Each structure stands twice: as structure tokens, then as C-alpha cells.
Amino acid sequence: MKTNYLDLSLADILLLIGVQARTGELVVEAGNNIGTVLFHQGKIIQAFSPYSRAIGDLLVEDGLITDTELLETLRLQKMNAYAPLGALLLKTGKVTFEVIEMMVHEQIRQAVNEFKSWNGLNYSFSAKDIVPFDRIHLPTQEFIPTETIHAAKTFLSYESPVPEVSSSPAPASSATV
After folding, report:
1. What are the tens digits of pLDDT across the range 121-151?
2. Cα–Cα distance between 130 and 46 in angstroms, integer?
3. Sign of the dihedral defined by the CA atoms of residues 33, 6, 148, 155, in that order
4. Domain residues of the chain, as ranges?
5. Which of 18, 50, 116, 120 is in the most buried spot, having the most CB atoms within 10 Å?
6. What is the rounded distance in angstroms from the CA atom of residue 157 to the CA atom of residue 146?
7. What's the rounded Cα separation, in Å, for the pair 82 and 98?
8. Residue 36 DSSP symbol
9. 67-122: pLDDT as tens digits
10. Paired strand residues for 126
């Protein structure tokens, strides 16, 4: 279901998915740009924009692995039914879990920040049984302005005031008829 929520920003959508602890895929579209954010129990586990940098490329750029190591690992990945590049690099000892976690976080941040720069966003959320491969995730709150989180908490915890009932009788009216 594709919907254009004109009054909802990306931060609003992320807040709703996070608060509801939803699992599934959010597709974000603007013109010819299409990106996705994958959620597990309201936490972001992956995000991709058309301009996202692949984890392998980020690792090579940062000098953490060589082009040759990346190509060897990508060949291994083709032989395995489903093995994320980061998991294979961990298995071979080329990088640590902390490095992979940092790179996945960076990839998510880059994609979400890219989405924020797009105009006329359309959102489509599909509930799917997405099972994370590892424990790497980012909370949606990271992308929501502090004042929005505070306003939401205030709104959700707000109790309407109950009129006080006085035990003393009300004063008599001084109006004459």
C-alpha cells in the first residue's frame, strides 16, 4: 500500500514504527528515488538508498580490508546460500564484530539522512517476517528530533484534568429575578 502522508515526516513515520515495535519493510519513494528500511521489533536493522555505499566498499575506503580481500570474500559469498558479507569477513578474521557493526550503522545513517533530503516522500510499509542475521541495529529514536520524542511522551502520558469537586456548598447567586 503506497501512501503519501503529507502531514507526516520521515521522523514521524520512524516514530510510529518504533513505538509500535513493528517488523517489516518501509519503502521510501520520491520521484525516481526509491529506498528501503528494514525493521525488526521497531529497530532499524538495514537501510538502503540508491546512493548507499556497500559495506565492502566502506571497509576498503577506510583501509580495513584490501580490494583483493573484498573480492575473495565476495566469491565466497556467491557459494553460500545466504551469508552477509560482514559475517564472512568475521569468519575469516579479517575484521571484528565492532567494525562490522560500525559500518552497518554508518550505512543506515547515510541512507536515512539521504531520505530526509528528498522532497515529496511517499511511504509504503509491509509487515514481513524479517529475522535479523545478528544483533546489529539502530533505534528509530536516533533519527527523531528530541523535541518530537518529548512531545510524543508528553502526549501519551497526558491525563486530562479531573474537575475538582468542592465539599463546601456553592455560593448562592446574587442575581435577582
Report:
1. 999 999 999 888 888 999 999 999 988 888 8
2. 11
3. negative
4. 10-142
5. 18
6. 16
7. 21
8. E
9. 999 999 998 888 876 778 888 898 888 899 999 999 999 999 999 999 999 998 99
10. 25
> How far apart, in whole angstroms, are the C-alpha atoms of residue 73 and residue 71?
5
Secondary structure string (H, E, C) spanning 99-167: HHHHHHHHHHHHHHHHHHHCCCCEEEEEECCCCCCCCCCEEHHHHCCHHHHHHHHHHHHCCCCCCCCCC
Within 13 Å, how many C-alpha atoms sit on residue 160's CB side? 1
| Phi then psi dihedrals of residue 118, to 5 deg | -80, 150
Residue type, 140: T
User: What is the pTM for the complete model shown?
Assistant: 0.78
Residue 161 has pLDDT above 50, yes or no: yes
Sign (positive or negative) of CA dihedral 104, 109, 114, 118: positive
Report the amino acid identity of residue 163: P
Q: Among all chains, which residue has been given the C-alpha cell 503506497? A: 2
Single-letter amino acid code for the residue at 98: E
With CA atoms as reference, report the closest residue to 84 among 63, 62, 107, 67. 107
